[in-house]
Structure formats: C-alpha cells, structure tokens
Amino acid sequence: MLNIITALKPEAIEIIKHFKLKSNNNIYQNDKINLIITGQGKIKSAINTALLLQKYPYKSINFGVAGSNKYEVNEGFFIHKIIDFETSHSYYPDFFKEKSSEIVCISKPSKYFKLVDMESSGFFEAAYKFLSVEKIILYKIVSDTPSYKFNPKEVPTLIKNHIHIIEELIQEDKNPFEDIEELIHSIPLTQTQKIILKNILIYKKLKKQSLPKVPTFKNKKEVKEWINSLTNSLY
Amino acid sequence: MSMVIYIEKAAKNSKLAKHIIKKFNPKVIEINHYKEIFNRSKQNFNFQKNQNRLILAKKDNISFYKGSKFCSNRGYPNFYYSTQILGCIYNCQYCYLGGIYPSGYPVIFVNEDEFIQKAKELKDTFLAISYESDLLAFEGIYPFHKKWIELAKEKKDILIESRTKSANTSKLPKNPPSNFLLTFSLSPNEVTKFEKKAPSLEKRVKAIKEAISKGYRVEIAIDPIIKVDNFKEVYKNFINYLKKELPLLDIPIEIGTFRMNKDFLKKLRKIHLSEVTYYPYEIKNNEARYKDEKELIDFIKGLL
User: Which residue of A has its CA nearest to B3?
Assistant: First the structure.
C-alpha cells in the first residue's frame, strides 16, 4: 500500500484519474493507494497526514509542486533534506534516488530557495510519528521560479509528467509469513507460547521445512507438550 | 546510485573528508551533528545497509573504551578499544552491531590525528582499533592503518590489533612492527553466506598469505562457529583447506561459538530473517548460546 499526500486539488486530480481512485470520506482509494488532499501549509499537512496514517500506517509520499531559484520548471526531485525556515530544524528522509535535492519549508510565500514549499516539514513531522524513516518520501516538481509565475492550471500537467514515480513506488508489501500467522491464530496460546511457536515456525520455514500439522488439543497441557516436542525436533 | 555522504559542518575541511570527497565525488548532504542521522529512532538497518552512504563527523572529547571482560586482554594490564569508525561495511547476520547501533550507516570520525595523539598517552595497553567496525574493510576509502602502524613503531608498550574479514591487504604498508597484529576472522563458505558483502574464504586466505609476506604478525579467529547443516563435514573440509593453504601450526587460532546477549538477539531477529538468528538457542544468564557449545568447540579443536 502507498499513501499519497498532496496539498492542493490540482496536485491530486491527475493521480486520482490515472489510478481510478474512488472517494471515501475525503480519502481517495483503490486497492493499492490512499490519497488525501491536506490543504496548504505545514499545519494542515501535518494534521491530515496524521489522520490518514492513524487509519492506514503505510509508506507515504508527499507529492506536489515547489518553487525554485535554481532548477527549471518541470524538473522533479526526491527530497534528502528538509529545512524548516521558521524553526531552522532539519529533517532527513532516507528514501531518495539519484536526482534529489534539499528543500526549505516556509509558512507563507516570501522568497525563493533551491527548492521551496509550504508542507514538507509538517508532513515529515507527522509521518515520523507513525512510520520508520525510510517509509517517508517526498517528491517535488518545480512549478515556478523568480522569472516564471505560479499558474495553478499548469499543475495537473506537471504532475502527469512525473506520475511514473508513483507507479515505481507501488509495491506489494506481502508478508512472507502469512501462513505462520494464520497457524498461530488457529491455536489457543499464551502470549509467550505465541512468541516461542512463531520463532520455531520461522526457523522451520527458513530451513525450507514444511510447517507441522496442528493436532486437536484437549487441554492446555497438550498444547505445551506439542510446542516442547516441536522445539526438541529442531536439534 | 552513487555514494552519499552526510557530513558535519565541522568535518568538511578535514584532510580525511577532502580525500574521500575527491576520490568518490559523492552526493554531499550537510548535517549539524552526526547524531541527527545516526541516533534517530525508527531506522531500517537493512535498508540502510543496502545504500552506499557514510557519515563523516568530528569526534569531540576522544577517549578509548574499556574492552569487554569476555575478550582476552592478551596479558596486558590495560585493554581498550578505539571507535574511530562506528559500524561496518559488511552486514553479517550474526553480528551484535545490528543489535546495538540504531543506524546502518557507518560513522567515520575525521580527526584521526587526535585519536593517535590520545593513544600516545596509553601505557602497557592492548588496544583494539577495529572492535566495533572492520577498519581494514574501509582501507579502500582511506588509508586508516598507516598512522596506527607508525604509532606501534613508536610505542612499544602497546599491542595494537586490527581484526578483519576484509581482503584489503594489498593496501597495507610493508614491514609493520611486531606489536601490530592483524587478526583474520575466517568461516567456511557455508557460513560466509551469512556474512553479506564480506569476501569469500578463498579471498581472505589469499589476504592472509599476502599479510604474512608483507611481514605482518597474523592470527586467525574461527569465531563465531555457526552450526550449519552437515556441520561436521563442513568444518572438517574448512580446516583441511586451511591446513593445506596456510602454515597453521605457526598461526595462533582463537575459537568461539555464536553467543549473544538475548536482548541483542531479539533486536537482530527483527533485522535478519535468517536461520542464524532464528536458531533455537538455549538462553541462560541472559545469553543465547548453542546447547552443545562445548562439543562444537571440542570438535573444531580436534580437527586442528
């Protein structure tokens, strides 16, 4: 699953169309994507990112446009460093590719930097409460420069030009031990027994051994004996 | 992707940083302090191990740490280890570093002269310089050993040990003094498969031969012994190979089986889904060990 966080509707519209997302309580979804439009600014970005992640704690990308005094319009960058202009605090996303940049996050449009936006630090702060650092991703496309004025009508085209970035990020995070989880849930176990049994079964699977058949247990003693016999069979 | 370096502002003008940046032309990301990256919570160790990233920093208040009582002090009244580098290039599935460090990105402290200066103050000391890292594995990035070897020449009352799985001996200078020790950690190839990014057994053996020919005092560590399938056959072939290739009777050999603090093992299981981490070890006194540890060690000793 991939969460997509955009600030503005024009940033979301092409993504919604391309991935055929359906609206459900202000979250646009299909079986691989949850998208939320947060509104402009750090605070709105943080609040709505947190709301989304509380329900769907998956890898998340802040995808949108930014201003620049260095790059050309339509150039896209992963972000490897966010500097919050007001607090001077820096954030370092772990996931970025060859073409990456730092970005300055400001509260209101005032001046240009290498890259500048109004949401990145709020998004990162909120996402970091829920996710490990490599699952927090930012991708920004230059929409305006000191000599090229921001035009919201151009935003959908800019997003469309970089939509392949999202396609590349959509990967199925399939749990390789789903069958083990199912097996464990089918037996009445104490918390400690669950941990012991899970470790035994993961070891068996890593050794390419088949998982054991679960007998019908009459009482807790039989469960304990079965786990002991499985443990002894490993040596 | 090309190399990425996180660099402290205070480290930017150091000789070491300039050398690495000139040699590799990396993407450079400026940071205020290495702990902003290294000490963060919620990092993915394995993800980071697969990135080509380093942190360059300046170490304040350099001091050496006391060596563990579980390791030999080699008869010296003082046993310390240096932390010039935190973390390792390799990603061994049984390594305790995965259990203690929050980040998979190695930190290199750039003020090497200050480490050497501090070491000059030591007396009658066994000093391990590759204790929570593999210093020789980094020799392709910068010649870290040169100054330590010069120090050993100057300070005869300290024994300096560099422990390694690397095969980078071609990058080492010739004719070191006898109080500079290179200890090679060796495993059969059935075990080196758990030592991700580390050289094969054959390459390490070749490196030992080169080190001996350059005049290094060499030792071997068969540690940790890992109980793989067909354990006896695997280790018998391994020891026979070492006997065939190396003057084994002249090289001191240290032997140990896998053992680890149980909390480190718990952390390691989250990082490595591996038959080494998930082996059903016996837990006693908060340590995970093989139930038949003594038999395993006796078996290897019998082969030697």
Answer: A98
Count of domains observed in chain B: 1
Q: Which amino acid is at B154?
A: E
Owning domain of residue B187: 4-303
ipTM over 0.90: no
Which residues of B are less than 8 Å from A231 in CB distance? 280
pLDDT tens, residue order, chain A (235 aa)? 899 999 999 999 999 999 999 999 999 999 999 999 999 999 999 999 999 999 999 999 999 999 999 999 999 999 999 999 999 999 999 999 999 999 999 999 889 999 999 999 999 999 999 999 999 999 999 999 999 999 999 999 999 999 999 999 986 555 677 788 888 888 888 888 888 898 888 888 888 888 888 888 888 888 888 988 888 888 7
What CATH number does residue B143 fall under?
Answer: 3.80.30.30
A178 touches chain B (CB under 8 A): no
Burial of A228 (0-12, 13-18, 19+ CB in 10 A): exposed
Prediction pTM value? 0.87
Nearest-neighbour CA in chain B from A153: distance (Å)? 34
What one-letter code names the amino acid at B143?
A: P
Alpha carbon of B59 to those of B34, B104, B215: distances in Å? 9, 19, 32
In chain A the domains, ranked by start, together with CATH numbers, are 2-172 (3.40.50.1580), 178-233 (no CATH)
A114 touches chain B (CB under 8 A): no
